[in-house]
């Protein structure tokens, strides 16, 4: 009734040949992850010209919030005045948003309509 041949058979186990091939590319997980990491997008913080905000106030804002010296701040202010807009700096998104809000808040507190925006660099 019983076949002796069936009793002596070993249980079936996974054959290494049946498993997906493991390629040794000699990279670590950290190496592969770092290859996929992209630098954050950068944004320009831009001041827009208006006919009411005093030039001295614009220079002060550029110095205070963007840490430019008097000469650089004056050049940016003149660019805003003559070309309609001027770039104050390039930052990550969170930093750019914060700087835009700080400038707009300061302008409103001082009673000036100065506009500040950000655009992808």
From TrEMBL:
Taxonomy, superkingdom: Bacteria
Molecular function terms from GO: peptidase activity
One Pfam family of this chain: ClpS
Keyword Hydrolase listed: yes
One GO term of the biological process aspect: protein catabolic process
Hydrolase keyword on record: yes
Ranges where the Adaptor protein ClpS core domain occurs: 39-117
Keywords noted in UniProt: Hydrolase, Protease
Family listed: Belongs to the ClpS family.
Annotated function: Involved in the modulation of the specificity of the ClpAP-mediated ATP-dependent protein degradation.
Protein name from the UniProt record: ATP-dependent Clp protease adapter protein ClpS
Organism: Polynucleobacter cosmopolitanus
Name of the gene: clpS
């Amino acid at each position: 009734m019983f076949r002796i041949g069936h009793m002596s058979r070993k249980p079936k186990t996974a054959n290494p040949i049946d498993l997906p091939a493991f390629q040794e590319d000699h990279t670590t997980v950290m190496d592969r992850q770092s290859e996929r990491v992209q630098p954050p997008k950068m944004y320009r913080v831009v001041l827009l010209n208006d006919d009411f905000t005093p030039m001295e106030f614009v220079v002060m804002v550029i110095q205070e919030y963007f840490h430019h010296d008097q000469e650089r701040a004056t050049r940016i202010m003149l660019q805003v005045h003559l070309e309609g807009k001027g770039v104050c700096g390039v930052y990550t998104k969170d930093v750019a948003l914060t700087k835009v809000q700080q400038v707009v808040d300061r302008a409103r507190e001082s009673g000036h309509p100065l506009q500040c925006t950000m655009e992808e660099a």
